[in-house]
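tokens incoming
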């Protein structure tokens, strides 16, 4: 079977690119330790909002130290609970976010807080807010017909 010279070059380049990509993935995963993030904890999405079973039964902000807070946020069909969070400037907030129904996203604008929110999994990220202002958080995964109503705000007070 005859293969044209240009096709041979294309095949060789394609194979070389696959080898380079696979090698890069292997080096990053095993030598540098980059892995897909694991959930902070696993919860039952059917009982996650039941009082006594988890901190998501009463979602909101909890002060855990001077200028340190934990925000428990529950994503559900077309809403985040709570919809508004207020912290003083200079605060460090650890976000714990889970879903009780379908896959959602949680992105806090103008920060590096951006996570997938899966039913039964608790995602965790920490951020420090030095600059007063309003930071909007939105669902960035399409979750149904009311997806556009899924937003909230984090207000950093002076």
């Amino acid at each position: 079977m005859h293969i044209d010279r240009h096709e041979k070059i294309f095949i060789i380049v394609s194979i070389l690119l696959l080898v380079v990509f696979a090698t890069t993935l292997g080096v990053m995963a095993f030598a540098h330790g980059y892995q897909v993030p694991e959930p902070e904890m696993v919860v039952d999405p059917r009982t996650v909002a039941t009082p006594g079973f988890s901190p998501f039964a009463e979602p909101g902000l909890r002060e855990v130290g001077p200028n340190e807070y934990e925000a428990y946020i529950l994503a559900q069909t077309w809403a985040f609970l709570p919809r508004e969070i207020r912290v003083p400037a200079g605060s460090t907030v650890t976000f714990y976010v889970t879903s009780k129904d379908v896959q959602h996203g949680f992105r806090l604008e103008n920060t590096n807080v951006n996570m997938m929110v899966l039913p039964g999994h608790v995602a965790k990220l920490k951020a420090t807010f030095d600059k007063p202002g309003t930071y909007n958080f939105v669902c960035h995964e399409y979750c149904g017909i009311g997806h556009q109503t899924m937003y909230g705000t984090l207000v950093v007070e002076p």
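note: The first strand starts at residue 41 and ends at 42.
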